[in-house]
Amino acid sequence: MQIDILTLFPEMIDQVSGHSILGRAQKNGLISIRAVDIRAFTEDRHRKTDEAPFGGGEGMVMTVQPVSDALRAVDAGSKRIIYPSPKGRLLDQDLIEGLAAEQDLVFLCGHYEGIDQRILDYWKPEEVSIGDYILTGGELAALVMVDAVARLIPGVLGNEASAMSESVYSGLLESPQYTRPRIYENMSVPDVLLSGDHERIRLWRYRQSLLETREKRPDLWRTYLEKAGSLDLGKKEKEILAEISGVDAFRPDRRRRGKRKDARTEKK
Ligand code: ADE
């Protein structure tokens, strides 16, 4: 996958994309992330890329010419263009999955008070917000999306991803993880994880995932319960799910009474 990120701050992109899993994925030829410097395209003799807004007001607006030429240079007309913006559709995993299916992606990062509207009218990028808060520019939002897209590309993650991508687990939060030492300042690792019994460990993790999701993300929990019937759950998983969802079903008003304690004290 070729990802072009158009920005006035290419170093911001390079700093992140060269490291860790993104860096490794690039070295392995699985993705290519290119920071394209919008300023390199300006025809202004002072190399300006922004001007004060017509009609007055705060801040500066990115000008049409360098942005348009940068988009042309990456052949954006034939590609999906994403414009990170607080006005956009809220990002979620479905959108990320759609992006991950593309051959090429272009991210157009705005700064200052935004980009001249004629860019948006002509190129019609998809506006995407990563959350209801305001960032100083689109770069961090673009990197969030690139990171989430990259980990879906086959080969980018090792085996780490496989368990959680099983449909049984989709929509659930991950179970807690432990590593050495077995005991640290009187806090020990749950015995089951040291048992070597893979079936018991698998079921323990499923139970923990259910408990974590019910406790921390009731919205995801409700969605999971709605679709549970269509999941390929084994007999044991069904029993665990019935047990844990039953608690809610029998006492539907418990969430309104404030913080629940049961998830912590239930069988761990
Ligand atoms: N640019 C500024 N704020 C943003 C946000 N919340 N999401 C995406 N791009 C942005």
Could you characterize the architecture of this molecule?
By secondary structure, the protein is of the alpha/beta class. The protein folds into two domains: 2-150, SPOUT methyltransferase, trefoil knot domain (Alpha/beta knot); 167-265, Trp Operon Repressor, Chain A. It is built from eleven helices and nine strands. It has helices at residues 10-17, 20-27, 64-73, 93-100, 117-123, 139-150, 160-165, 198-216, 218-227, 235-250, 262-265; strands at 2-7, 32-37, 50-51, 61-62, 80-90, 104-108, 126-129, 183-184, 187-188. The strands form three sheets. The protein has a five-stranded parallel beta sheet, sandwiched between helices. A two-stranded antiparallel ribbon has the order 3-4. α4 packs across α6 (139-150) and α8 (198-216) crosses α9. The two termini are 42 Å apart. Bound molecules: adenine (ADE). The site of adenine has 11 residues, from β5.
Question: Which characteristics define this entry?
Answer:
2 domains, elongated, alpha/beta, Alpha/beta knot, five-stranded parallel sheet, 268 residues, two-stranded antiparallel ribbon, Trp Operon Repressor, Chain A, binds adenine
Mean pLDDT comes to: 91
CATH H-tier superfamily of the largest domain: SPOUT methyltransferase, trefoil knot domain
Discrete helix count: 11
**What is the CATH C level class of the largest domain, in words?**
Alpha Beta
Protein structure class: alpha/beta
Number of strands: 9
User: Could you say what the CATH architecture of the largest domain is?
Assistant: 3-Layer(aba) Sandwich
Low-confidence stretches: 254-268
Task: Report the sheet with the most strands, covering strand number, pairing sense and barrel closure.
Answer: 5 strands, parallel
Hetero compounds? adenine
Strand content: 5-15%
What is the helical fraction, as a range of percent? 40-55%
Computed over alpha carbons, the radius of gyration is 24 Å
The helix-strand sequence is EHHEEEHEHEHEHHEEHHHH
Distance between the termini: 42 Å
The name of the CATH topology of the largest domain is Alpha/beta knot
The count of domains is 2
Overall outline: elongated
Strand order of the largest sheet: 2-1-6-5-7
